[in-house]
Amino acid sequence: MPPEQHRPPGRGLPVLAFAAATALAASTLAVTATASAAPAEPVVAQDDYTWDNVEIVGGGFVPGIVFNQTEPGLAYARTDIGGAYRWNPDTERWIPLLDWVGWDDWGHTGVVSIATDPVDPDRVYAAVGTYTNDWDPNNGAILRSDDRGETWEVTELPFKLGGNMPGRGLGERLSVDPNDNSIVYFGARGGHGLWRSTDHGATWSEVEAFPNPGDYVQDPSDETGMMSDITGVTWVDFDPRSGEDGSATQDVYVGVADLEDPVYRSQDGGQTWEPVPGAPTGHLPAHSVVDHEGGQLYMATTSTPGPYDGESGDVWRMDLDTGEWTNVSPVPSTSEDNYFGYGGLTIDRQNPDTLMVATQISWWPDIQIYRSTDRGETWTQAWDWGAYPERTTRYEMDISAAPWLDFGGTGTPPETQPKLGWMTQAMAIDPFDSDRFMYGTGATIYGSDNLTNWDSDTTFDIEVKARGLEETAVNDLISPPEGAPLHSALLDVGGFTHEDLDTAPEQMYQQPYWGHGSSLDFAELEPATIVRVGGSDEEAAIGLSTDGGDSWWAGQEPGGVTGGGTVAVNADGSSVVWSPEGTGVHVSTTLGSSWTASTGVPEGARVQADRVDPDVFYAVAGGTFYTSTDGGATFAARFDGLPAEGNIRFGAVPGHSGDVWVAGGTGDHYGMWRTTDAGATFERIEAVDEGDSIGFGAPAPGADYPAVYTSSRIDGVRGIFRSDDAGGTWVRINDDQHQWAWTGAAITGDPNVYGRVYVGTNGRGILYGDLADGGGEPDPEPSPEPEPSPEPSPDPEPSPDPEPSPEPGDCGVEYEVTNTWTGGFQAGVTVTNTGDETLDGWEVGWEFANGEEITSLWSGDHVQDGTSVRVTDVGWNGRVAPGDSVLFGFTGVVDGEPGEVTGLTVNGVACG
Fold first, then answer.
1. Residues 6+ apart with CB under 8 A from 801
2. CB 512 within 8 A of CB 408
3. In angstroms, what CA-CA distances link 5 with 491, 648, 719?
4. Contacts of 644 (CB under 8 A, 6+ apart)
5. Distance between CA atoms of residues 174 and 875, nearest Å
6. What is residue 821's predicted lDDT score, i.e. its pLDDT?
7. Cβ–Cβ < 8 Å for 270, 303
8. Annotation marks residue 80 as catalytic
9. Distance of alpha carbon 608 from alpha carbon 517, whole angstroms
10. Distance between CA atoms of 171 and 321, rounded to whole angstroms?
């Protein structure tokens, strides 16, 4: 079946892939795939592209950060749905490592645990799998790399993992033996116990002697399976003093989600196991760290797996030689001031008496971070109470790398924006630099490079350390022909207007603000009019802008709205059709201040607007295509035969009224269809085996139809594709190392840059691609070399008679009005090189006759001064070979009918 969207509380967008994997029967598992493998013979044409993220910086939960203890500067971060990353200390950016994960194995971007090899720093391991319920039909896997994550090999497990489930911030569940690095342990959830590899992760076997897979279940009555799964084994740690180089470490410690027996130990290299005597009970063992110099094991505990909750907890220290346990909690669970569990835990390897721990969650007023320099005997904290409600802090925060982290305000004391953090289950001090530490939150990574200022009562700095790590889940994207190039609707952080693709925006959408954006649209002929919808309990679920997203206001809601649904705005911005969750389709002709129920269309239908005719809207539901010709007031069923199940997405073509493409389905009824008569008839695009998202961008040079983009399976190949001939032929524009798992939610081209495409992912943010051999922004014209000044002639020659002005003639330009409607029109201009030499750059001019005014123009740059218009090429379409043509088009407004233009010129030559 095709991917289907679900959303657990608070994070991410799980999707369902096609078929459940069959669990392996054997207890020893061998490698099943190589990430760098590629098809021997590509079936479809391939185009070379360069890819980069639209920069947001973070946007999702980071549950794990791990430093290598052998090589300075080597660190990894894991995310719950967005893959794993390696830190680049030279650029201070994160490098994505799992972009090769494909559509069918989308669950492998949920990273349960990550481990870096302390003996061979080139080796790294990741345990992957997103859900243990039926949302993810595939089993989990252990990935292994011997080149720091550049390439990976995959060993499938006979059970599922939960990278986006409760308890995903516990750990680390993967751990490499520091004496014999061929030995790797993994602690599983779901009652599957403890697993071990003795060949660098190539094969795995269950440790049958391990007696307790855990029995803690947070909510046995949860029918979704999210809260009713066994939390299982939570972490694995070694005491390296109990082994020698090349031989297995003898003392191995394992945390288990069992309130009565939370810690187990082996003292014979994993052959036998027993509960650790005197281990504290009543809480879950969340995190551990071993001080192998001082012989201490530290453990942070919490009452729930988190990351959204946790009402009590403690921090414990165990002397590894004597077995004595000491409660060293900054605020013990017995205190009335303890209303939180403990999360991120770390020690300073340069000064191992120094440790830090964070509250796992304390929504109000903020998390707290504690620091001790005497093994937990005494603590100081990152902030203290001043004169209530004020707080005094030891730190200053810098969010300039992601300024939207203030969530649009400064907060109401004692809460502040930005917050110090939330969901803080990842924390690590650099083992080679006591001044550097990082910690994860629900939206970013924060860190400091002068941490030890804390100990001298000097302010230390906290700044965003998430550059390069992009973890938003995308629901919708639009790229208007004017103004900012991109607007987005995102889960968890609402969405953004991007003025610059390579710079994080100043703020997420505000007024209204909501956490989950579901859909947005713009008026094709008035692109400054934008409408967005989303879900929130506190704010109206629709926002509107008439200045291209610079400012917004909240519209009213029809009764019964429970979620954003989908929204469409007609071509001239005069009508909005909204299909929200909880109630039926409605139309507004007052920019959202009042609504009328539409008729003839079922509740829950997806809606779109014709990009040319303001009177026409479209809807799809239950396999039926609906059309409205009265601005969304009434709809009529036009075609029955589209897919009734699966994710259905569709889009209307800019500049072509009645031209609509539909993608989606499931099973045998899964593909892509197109109508050119507003839904009266549809034709299937035969090359598309499985169609998922559809979008349009600037046409290819010389073409008059927009480039079509899709995330689909075409001729047997899954990928991102472009067609320059309305679906006649397709080229794949991504490759096997750039797949980004599930990409079925949103795609759009840029209307002003041929070849540029924006791709929405489920946890890797927004990607944009440009043609590798061009495309993107037009190259600037080179400045001509200055000509040398001529030597003065002693006897100047008389000036020759001026050349006569050229006679008007065939200068190779055709102007055609292609469509009209009340108050507006669309026109196309074709420039043909009628000469014998290549034309390097062109400029077309004319005079309007009836007061026409251009509102939007594509494939050219224009200036209008009264009735005079001048249009120049945009670089990529400036070079025209003899006999070839280029086309640009525009929409405009006019009082009455557009007239015939006069004074046509090309490069200053008048046309007869």
1. none
2. no
3. 12, 11, 19
4. 622, 623, 669
5. 52
6. 62
7. no
8. yes
9. 17
10. 23
Task: Give me 677's structure tokens.
Answer: 């008569």
* DSSP label of 334: T
List strand residue ranges (DSSP E) for 348-493, in order.
355-359, 369-372, 380-381, 383-385, 391-393, 395-398, 427-429, 437-440, 445-448, 460-464, 474-478, 486-490
The number of beta carbons lying within 10 Å of the beta carbon of residue 506 is 13
Per run of 10 residues, the mean pLDDT along the chain (length 912 residues) is 39 33 33 41 77 98 98 98 98 98 98 98 98 96 98 98 98 98 98 98 98 97 96 98 97 98 98 98 98 97 97 98 98 97 98 98 96 98 97 98 95 95 98 98 98 97 98 98 98 97 97 94 98 83 96 95 96 98 97 97 98 98 98 98 96 98 97 98 98 98 97 98 98 98 98 98 98 63 37 37 41 81 78 83 90 80 90 77 78 87 88 58
DSSP 24: P
DSSP assignment of 294-361 equals: TTEEEEEEESS--SS------EEEEETTT--EEE--SS-TTSTT--S-EEEEEE-TTSTT-EEEEES-
For the chain, how big is the Rg over CA atoms in Å?
Answer: 31
Catalytic residue among 80, 104, 180, 430: 80
- Coil, helix or strand for 874? coil
Q: How far apart are alpha carbons 863 and 297 in whole angstroms?
A: 71
437, 445 Cβ separation under 8 angstroms: no
Return the residue matching tokens 């840029």: 750
Strands 355-359 and 369-372, sheet pairing: antiparallel
> Is the separation of the CB atoms in 819 and 889 below 8 Å?
no
Tokens of 138: 């595939």
Task: Locate 646 and state its tokens.
Answer: 């699966």
Indicate if 492 belongs to the active site.
yes
CA 819 to chain centre: 38
> In one letter, which amino acid is 470?
E
Of the residues 430, 492, 610, 770, only one is catalytic, namely 492
**Phi and psi at residue 653, in whole multiples of 5°?**
-85, 125
What length does the chain have? Answer: 912
This prediction has a pTM of 0.83
Q: For 240, which DSSP code?
A: G
End-to-end CA distance of the chain, in Å? 61
Measured between alpha carbons, how far is 97 from 739 in angstroms, rounded to an integer?
12
Q: Can you give 639-683 as a three-state secondary structure string? A: EECCCCCCCEEEEECCCCCCCEEEEEEECCEEEEEEECCCCCCCE
Count Cβ atoms below 10 Å from residue 121 Cβ, excluding itself.
15
Contact between 826 and 889 (Cβ < 8 Å): yes
Position of tokens 């045998």?
A: 668
User: Are 441 and 462 a contacting pair, CB within 8 Å?
Assistant: no
